[in-house]
Design goal:
DNA-binding; alpha/beta; 9 helices; Rossmann fold; 2 domains; 58% helix; homodimer; Arc Repressor Mutant, subunit A
DNA sequence: AACGGTATAGGGGTTTTCCCCTATTTGGGT
DNA sequence: ACCCAAATAGGGGAAAACCCCTATACCGTT
């Protein structure tokens, strides 16, 4: 079911990659190294999880560019930025864009480990969240347009009678739709249904 | 009802305070200046809103310290950090701690204005949120412990019969509590009630 | 001692939901 | 031509919720 988290190291300096690899392996973390952002993107898939350690200064695509690209995806592992020549502005932008941390080389080993731990924790929780949401969305997709319409009105607290009038059909039709909705959404009670829908609304 | 947003400038350099004041007033924003964090704290009240422009290096209490103090409060205006001698680490910490922006002196006037605008927007939305939450919490406080207990079980989707058995009382007692809950929470439908409770849970 | 709020319990009635059926029409796919 | 999913509609009954009323007991305040 669950694979181990992987630390994806993306840095065009082989020395750095190897050093980080050793450091991570010393605490039992798996590592996958890439010499360029493109190399990483080529094998990127949504199953991967863990975190990214990303160098800013790289040929062709910078770490910050990769960060922006990944931000456009539905979901990606948390990012730790490392850089040899960082400035305040760059660091601010990176963190504002959601990076977990921004470290200057040469970094303290423990600081990087701490950031990676933090990133992996964040990955776990955000993946848990994403899974729940995806699950609910999958069920929602099973609804017909009409059922979806009824669902929305149910969630809004309308009684069947009112929904029937609203949609210009009989009450028994609404009852039928409503039963279908509960079945397809795998909701035992109205409370379950509302919880699912509000999670989508509020997150 | 609504007062204008105020830019609270906290910097021990009078020149800087005056420069920022002029800049802010040039676009019609109100300003309140303070020469120390303590001065600001002394007059701090939760009605204030707008944003803070905070210098890092100050005698006795630094901007970052003040940021930490305010973070302990239930709610405070968004913070823009400015500094003459910032480093990457400091910037990262400040943004991670929730600062809207971190600017180095001498800053570009437009950059500061942009940050302040962003901060004020954030203030508006976070105050709106906080108001909604406070409103719900106020109503919740009106419930007796027993009513609160019933509410929780209702939200969990339990039927009155089950709640009655759970609490070892009769069904009609539950009905009475339930009616009281709806009245005190000002909820017309179960849907309203669930929405309020889930907003508290999920935010 | 009287009062108000809380928790309890019940009667009696209406409305709504929920669940089990059947049944027709329409439109798409085999 | 046949079948299936979707949308429609209805009957009938059980369960639950909702509403209005009364009533008792306890507890703390005035």
């Amino acid at each position: 079911m669950h694979s181990d988290p992987v630390v994806f190291v993306i840095d065009d300096d082989q020395q750095v990659r190897e050093a980080i690899q050793l450091l991570m392996e010393s605490i039992g973390l798996k590592v996958a190294s890439f010499a360029s952002a493109q190399e990483y993107l080529d094998q990127f898939n949504t199953q991967d999880h863990g975190c990214l350690i990303l160098d800013v200064r790289m040929a062709s695509m910078s770490g910050l560019e990769l960060q922006a690209r990944l931000a456009a995806e539905e979901s990606h592992p948390p990012i730790v930025i490392i850089t040899g020549h960082g400035d305040v502005q760059m660091a601010v932008k990176a963190i504002q864009a959601g990076a977990v941390d921004f470290l200057e080389k040469p970094f303290n080993d423990q600081a990087l480990l701490d950031s990676v731990h933090h990133a992996i924790e964040k990955d776990l929780s955000q993946r848990g969240e994403a899974l729940k949401l995806a699950d609910i969305r999958t069920r929602l997709k099973r609804l017909t347009p009409r059922e979806r319409e009824v669902l929305d009105l149910v969630i809004a607290g309308q009684r069947n009678k009112v929904i029937a009038i609203d949609l210009g059909v009989s009450q028994s039709t609404i009852e039928a739709h409503r039963a279908k909705v509960m079945e397809k959404m795998e909701a035992a009670t109205l409370s379950d249904l509302m919880r699912m829908m509000l999670i989508l609304e509020l997150r």
